[in-house]
Amino acid sequence: MNEYCLAVYRIYDDKADFHKKAEGIAVGLTVGSWTDLPEARKEEMQKHLGRVVSVDIYDEAGTERYADIAIAYPDVNFSRDIPALLVTVFGKLSMDGKVKLMDLKFSQRFMSAFNGPKFGLPGVRKLLGVQDRPLLMSIFKSVIGHDLEALQEQFYQQALGGVDLIKDDEILFENPLTPIERRVEACMKAARLAEQETGQKLLYAVNLTGPTSNLAAQAKKAIDAGANALLFNVLAYGFDTLHELASNPEISVPIAAHPAMAGAMYPSPHYGISAKVLLGKLMRLAGADLVLFPSPYGSVVMPKDENLAIREVLLTEDVPNNYLFSLSAVPSAELHLKPSVPVPSAGIHPGLVPWIIRDFGTDVVVNAGGGVHGHPMGAAAGGRAFRQAIDAVLSSMTLTTYAEQPQNAELAAAIQAWGVKQ
Amino acid sequence: MNEYCLAVYRIYDDKADFHKKAEGIAVGLTVGSWTDLPEARKEEMQKHLGRVVSVDIYDEAGTERYADIAIAYPDVNFSRDIPALLVTVFGKLSMDGKVKLMDLKFSQRFMSAFNGPKFGLPGVRKLLGVQDRPLLMSIFKSVIGHDLEALQEQFYQQALGGVDLIKDDEILFENPLTPIERRVEACMKAARLAEQETGQKLLYAVNLTGPTSNLAAQAKKAIDAGANALLFNVLAYGFDTLHELASNPEISVPIAAHPAMAGAMYPSPHYGISAKVLLGKLMRLAGADLVLFPSPYGSVVMPKDENLAIREVLLTEDVPNNYLFSLSAVPSAELHLKPSVPVPSAGIHPGLVPWIIRDFGTDVVVNAGGGVHGHPMGAAAGGRAFRQAIDAVLSSMTLTTYAEQPQNAELAAAIQAWGVKQ
Lengths: 422, 422
Prior knowledge:
The structure is a homodimer.
Chain A: E1 4-12, H1 18-28, H2 39-45, E2 51-58, E3 66-74, H3 82-90, E4 99-105, H4 108-111, H5 120-128, E5 135-139, H6 148-160, E6 165-167, H7 180-198, E7 203-208, H8 215-224, E8 229-233, H9 234-237, H10 239-247, E9 255-258, E10 272-273, H11 275-286, E11 290-294, H12 304-316, E12 341-345, H13 353-360, E13 365-368, H14 370-373, H15 379-394, H16 399-403, H17 409-418
Parallel strand pairs in A: 4-10, 5-6, 5-13, 6-7, 7-8, 8-9, 9-11, 11-12
Antiparallel strand pairs in A: 1-3, 1-4, 2-3
GO molecular function (chains A, B): 2,3-diketo-5-methylthiopentyl-1-phosphate enolase activity
Domain Ribulose bisphosphate carboxylase large subunit C-terminal (chains A, B): 123-418
Organism (chains A, B): Paenibacillus gansuensis
């Protein structure tokens, strides 16, 4: 039986016949030619032929003319891996004028090759023993050129503030001062010391870098040294490499996907791949347990609707959802992938926590760098201020009121430094 | 001693202080902060600090305000691999407003980890025994759903026309009808049969696909079956994977890099990575022996200046060229990488050959799909028409004059079908 993966494109063109263009894509990227084929051959080739599902034309005075075109690609045409899918639906087409890949839907059969996140939201919550509140992540700052002792101290200060996760700087690579296994040992020791103070578990996402063929070994080295999470610059290596790492049973810790390089592909209205696909669907399909993406609040911004679209496909939708061109099959339950944890990042301070929870709900990681390290009373106080802000929102109190309580002096200081977003 | 890799960005902003912005990048993407550091620490950290090399501001009425900003990054900050370099210079920055990575230059030390193309232009010419003329490549058409016999016949017809290289369709993946080793056997048999007719050697670039960790094994399987070249969708896997394949001594055949997905990154003026870097410098650095890219002639077009910039960095410049921030070191000869062969593709018919040679010189592959298969007298005649067009140009004759000779009927028919570009 035919099953199809669906691609939705936005194509800008002042005068193209969009229906003809859609037909050209559906045929050109599958069987190559159709009308020239003898009838007998057409019957055989039917199962390889792409189909135009819809063509919605937007042609209004004063705006650029475009169409949203949905094409269904028979999944028998490609192997069940992300490179094959992307090369099919957006390999050559990406270079053919103003065209952006807006959405992807996967057939049940294609999805059968993917397990998605090994931990996902429920697994990460379980590891941390935190069920009901947003998680809090802190980011190492200015670590290039620092030694193990300095890293350990910075880690300890962040951990003391009650954060749930600490992530490496994504630009910290293998180096003689802080090689991955030594970094893990030093930081996990600091985590244990802090836990004695705070009573709280902590995941340290150590940056997984180096040659592609050595990543799995490098991950195992880190895990053997005590690493309980990994950070990975997915787009610098390709989704298939994430998929292979996430599928590897020996990599027994959550993977946090960093969006480095994503800005080369999602922001243009005319070219590239939508943030929802790039940082949402494909990350979840490939197995990212947590996904970082630019928040709508900070200096590195992404429009809020794109943020919420990412959140939806990571978390709540039955995503990557099955698209069945025929109606004779129903997605089976075991194909459902665990949700990935959304991590809107950049420009986050405690005064934004009510907005984060309003926009993203409580199944979110509040992720802060400067908002922790730049706290007037230090990094430990920075973490506490965020935890207090989260407590305030969950208690349905305003930050300002909550900060008046003497035990919440750190939140008060944060509000004084950065204000409360109104 | 400090060595630096250089990144040049084009940043659009109506009113930014570009000098301040450049300083922010140089510090933010290296040591993180600078002015706050104690003097003693500054001395230690000096070697990790990024430097602003130049800021050229373009601010003219009626055009968008932008600046070209060059930043030098100390190569001690990252490991000697392309993911580390790209994540450093364009990881987070790619998401920070309208910014495009325009150029990259590599330090001698960074380049020491790269051997570049194993064959390159001289190696490919030697394998084919063709020194003095442009090479001719033909592309399989409409091969999805076809069996080995059909492929073999199509291959044979193309080969009879005197083409030097035949490439798989980049959307042909592992499939039960034509698995890679059977495809290679069938096509190489056709190549030998054709060689008995034409006396000419031929490279078949078979499409290397599937899971990342299996690519090397898959390549070896193809080579064991007789493959004498590979086609690879580099951007679907990442440059590091190409680098690893090209560095693998067991992969003893040239690799042709396909530009699938490149259109997600190079065409926007505001975002992404320039074609020169994406399809030029990084491809050569990573070891592509041949590089396909959209020609300036066909339907999938790229502006001619971008085409020529790719050509230059693949072929003639001492590229990827060393950038030394200090003047105390001179590039050593052994770091020079072999040139990669430029393959401008799409929309090529024999009437364009004079333009291709005028624009690209003779160190180029003339690459045709429809221009071979769509020839009124068939694919073998299509190849011959191209070879005749090449001969005409090298004999300093016009195509029309050359086509008047009775032995060049194929060229005459091609001209009748597609014309001669004036």
